[in-house]
Amino acid sequence: QVQLVESGGGLVQAGGSLKLSCAASGIFSIDVMAWYRQAPGKQRELVAAVASAVITNYADSVKGRFTISRDNAKNTVYLQMNNLRPEDTAVYYCNVVTSRRDYWGQGTQVTVSS
Would strands 30-38 and 90-98 be described as parallel, antiparallel, or unpaired? Predict the structure, then answer.
């Protein structure tokens, strides 16, 4: 049974930090693990992706503030978010890509107050 379990969202003041986690089970041969976000009235956008321990990609808006990492032994991807801004407020979704298909988590709310 495929499961993506996300955790770590919440309410934080501007300038604060949060760390998101997404644990994947029942998925094999994972190529890419990523985080997307969707704010109200906006399209879902890529926040960060990691293809291996050293190949990463970030949206320009989060470079220098967010760090994505993965633990292959645990099939888990993390997103460390520092210096959060109100415009980071969104539902954050975990995405796992294999050669056959991709999978989505249920989403976790991140709210940054000014």
Answer: antiparallel
